[in-house]
Amino acid sequence: MPGVTPSSSAVHPVAQDVDPKRAAVLLxxxxxxxxxxxxQLNEIARSAGVGVGTVYRHFATPQALLETLVGQRLQxxxxxxxxxxxxxDTAEATRGFLRTTLLVLTEDxxxxxxxxxxEDALPSTGVLKTELSLGVDRLLRRAVDEKVLPDxxxxxxxxxxxxxxxxxxxxxxxxxxxxxxxxxxxxLLDGLLTSRPADPPSPSRRWPASATPTASxxx
Length: 219
Description:
Structural class: mainly alpha
Radius of gyration: 18 Å
Strand content: under 5%
Mean pLDDT: 82
Helix content: 55-70%
Number of strands: 0
Largest sheet: none
Order of helices and strands: HHHHHHHHH
CATH class of the domain at 70-194: Mainly Alpha
CATH topology of the domain at 70-194: Tetracycline Repressor, domain 2
């Protein structure tokens, strides 16, 4: 059975579920990611102490299970983007949001995987990506208008830069990854504020770049 790339760290804690069997499956999946194992539904069923049919009834594929776990990360980042976009100090709020996002990506590579997927297993994932995109776009517009970031920067650029920095930071062993991520982010932001490209990229502000939402956000 195909699996998904594991996360090297625990994802956001699973909220208490009204269905105890579903909650057990989510906790077992979270532990598998924490242990660096792929999400294999048969293995998750054994770890959760439930039948394989129970797992498939709630999660048709490993990707659907992964998106359920990562969905909580997406919700948290969306809330932080919205808060940052309304903050009085745009420069500090922008830096704080980018720092938080980078640390999450460094801790949880599964998040980057879900963001990069062109098609989502769950309609709710598309909604969450859209909401995150809107929050980041609002923050980015403020940062550009107030010259915190250069006017050529796009949401696509930020996504790719942060994912690249997170990958580089994870090359450092264990606890050295987070300090490395912070150093790289500081260097990145310093460079953004002092450089201009010779040929500005497309003005598209879509974030995440490859997300194709399968549902529209609620009105």
